[in-house]
Design a protein that fits this description.
The chain has helices at about 1-15, 25-30, 80-90, 110-115, 140-150, 160-170, 185-195, 215-230, 245-250, 265-270, 275-285, 350-355, 355-425, 430-440, 455-460, 470-480; strands at about 30-45, 50-65, 70-75, 95-100, 105, 120-125, 205, 235-240, 250-255, 260-265, 335-340, 340-345. It is of the alpha/beta class and about 475 residues long.
């Protein structure tokens, strides 16, 4: 018994005895969001069965973790997948792979009904405060709607609860019955923040909340977000292009390029010691408010490649000034270059840098094989074009021969028609044209085919009278005392 008491005293006097033992509960409480190898692909081409064959890789193998009560900034050029990452975490998009752990719970496999209870814990502040607010609802109705839907407070307390949220966000009570079009951009963004905070979230994804505001209003919104974080303990995923704002509000920075993570680390560490060439170029664009400081701006050449057809190897090698042969075919590993500082670059991979000669030889072999395949493809294309040209020439020759045969048959048929006309006593058209003056001289038009030019008396007596005589006969009939129509 005495030995047991002595052991207990030893444990009590040595608080670091179990410091190396990981406590799962503490880890879960400390990390509120953990994203592992997250992928979000959009199909842009499908086969006949509807299976995607070409995908746009908006988010490709992204991993990071956020501690409770902190802010992580997501930066990168337009089109790198920042907004898609935030919407995928919210499950507005269904992820194609990876996992999203929120307070230790897996979200990617949850259905809509199961996800409903997490909607109040994760909220989104939209980028555009003008289009994200319904124009036919008052400010009070906009903020109160999610409170009623999720039953945050009893119905009798909704009005006072909304007024309290508005006061926290810097909105006076008289704004309760006004409409969004009556407010400025900064005031509208405050309304968006109040709507997000009305359901008491734990994690807020801020999708460029100050990009549409001027500088003075930006400072007000950023200070508001920091005050709310200090008072309520909110956790932010802050998406922005403005690196100066990111430096002010965040504890971690995640740098993205074409859907991939280029660098991840503490804010002060990354700003003081950026490792990836893309991060260096990105941070060199941050203006320094000192006219005596010379800017060492790094200009990136070329445009961002298409996410639907990204380059092989490192996606940044087409614009990197420090590109090596290994970067063109081998994808860089995501390594920890310093404690808490991760980077995806071959320059900081000791294994790659130690075997550059081998990778150069491998690249030379791959390049030779690529050139050979291109020559074979070119030869096949030329042979195909020759076959097509020969077929077209043959088709043209056949068409020409057919036209020639058709003309020959037409001429033969015309000659046969002329012979048939001569046999029937008909004059050809050219002879009729030559006889026209003679016919006119004989008192007959060439188109009068019913009566010859001169009619013999015996023929007139035996036949009918000519067409020009009925008028004279009519006078004779009248002289005889008979009307022409009396039969």
């Amino acid at each position: 018994m005495e030995e047991l008491n002595e052991d207990m005293k030893t444990v009590a006097n040595d608080p670091n005895m179990f410091s190396d033992v990981p406590l799962e509960a503490e880890v879960q409480d400390d990390t509120i969001l953990k994203v592992d190898h997250l992928k979000m692909y959009f199909p842009i081409k499908k086969n006949l069965l509807g299976k995607p064959i070409v995908n746009l890789k908006a988010v490709d193998d992204v991993s990071f973790a956020v501690k409770r009560g902190t802010t992580i900034g997501v930066v990168g050029e337009s089109g790198c997948g920042k907004t898609t990452l935030g919407r995928t975490i919210l499950k507005l998009y269904e992820a194609n792979g990876g996992s999203i752990l929120f307070e230790g719970e897996e979200l990617t496999k949850l259905k809509k009904k199961q996800m409903r209870k997490y909607r109040t814990d994760i909220q989104l502040i939209f980028q555009d405060p003008y289009s994200s607010l319904p124009p036919r609802m008052t400010v009070g109705s906009i903020i109160a709607e999610p409170v009623r839907v999720h039953k945050i407070v009893p119905k009798k307390e909704v009005y006072n609860y909304v007024l309290d949220i508005m006061q926290k966000c810097g909105l006076p009570p008289q704004y309760y019955d006004r409409y969004p079009h009556e407010f400025s951009g900064g005031q509208r963004q405050r309304i968006c923040i109040a709507r997000a905070l009305a359901v008491q979230p734990k994690l807020v994804i801020c999708d460029e909340p100050v990009s549409a505001l001027d500088v003075s209003i930006q400072a007000q919104i950023i200070n508001l977000l920091k005050d709310l974080q200090n008072n309520i303990g909110l956790t932010y995923v802050f998406i922005s292009h403005d690196l100066s704002v990111v430096k002010y509000i965040t504890e971690q920075i995640l740098v993205m390029y074409l859907g991939n993570v280029m660098e991840l680390g503490e804010t002060d560490e990354i700003f003081s010691n950026p490792l990836h060439p893309y991060t260096k170029a990105l941070f060199s664009a941050v203006p320094v408010p000192n006219p005596d400081v010379k800017m060492n701006r790094i200009i990136l050449e070329g445009d961002i490649p298409s996410p639907a057809n990204p380059p092989k190897g490192c996606k940044f090698h087409t614009r990197c000034a420090q590109c090596m042969n290994v970067c063109k075919f081998k994808e860089p590993a995501y390594i920890e270059a310093a404690p808490g500082h991760h980077v995806a670059c071959h320059l900081y991979d000791e294994e790659v840098m130690a075997h550059l000669d081998e990778y150069d030889a491998e690249f030379a072999d791959l390049e030779e094989a690529r050139l050979r395949m291109e020559e074979e493809a070119k030869a096949k294309k030329n042979a195909k074009q020759k076959i097509i040209a020969a077929f077209a020439s043959c088709k043209h020759g056949l068409a020409k021969a057919g036209a020639k045969c058709k003309g020959l048959f037409t001429r033969k048929r015309g000659a046969a028609d002329e012979l048939a006309a001569d046999g029937a006593g008909e004059q050809p058209a050219d002879e009729l044209a030559a006889d026209e003056p003679a016919a006119v001289a004989a008192g007959r038009m060439p188109y009068d085919d019913d009566e010859p030019a001169a009619v013999k008396p015996d023929e007139r007596a035996a036949g009918e009278q000519p067409a020009e005589k009925p008028a004279a006969d009519a006078f004779d009939t009248v002289a005889a005392g008979k009307m022409p129509y009396d039969d």
